[in-house]
Amino acid sequence: MAKRLSMLDAGARVFCSEGFAGANIDLIAAEAGVSRQTVYNNFGDKEKLFAAVVGEITDRCTAGAFAVLGTFPDHPKHLETDLTDFAIRFIRNCICDRDGKFLRKLIHMEGERHPELFASWRVGGPGKVWSALAARFARLAFAGFLDIDDPDVAARQFFSLIFTDLQIPALFGEVLSDKEVARSARIAVVTFLRAYGRREAGGETPG
Hints:
By secondary structure, the chain is mainly alpha-helical.
């Protein structure tokens, strides 16, 4: 299992640096420190290895996202602060981590050439996470913290907002400081609450 994971990680690095067309089994085997025959024995060919790489990284990203979702503020003491802290955790652990960077680069480089593979990613990755977050937002709305007609739309918009300021830096591999991550998260949450925060009689959104 350790050797298989090593080959998958090596495959991710090589596919990200060389693209699918430029990558080959010899490069991946050398990166993993195994023989080319070992790669063939485990995965068959480059196409199957690429699919396995995308599947493995998708599974790890999804597992990481659900771990962070487990820290969602179901009973917030101060909604804006608690959601901002949650957004920071999500950015750090699911967007700016190594697997998140690998997956975004693979999608950017190969998504158009492998639409069926990344269609499965959308269902097995973001689709599951969006649904889980939507359920949590629905509970906050039921408890009186938010005013949401469609929790699924709200969940997708929340993710879009927290990723907006990160797209260009992420594309070029920049490492964001804690201050930049916190600022991005805070702006995203403030914007989200302007749209979905339940307002009191005086027009203020309750914390």
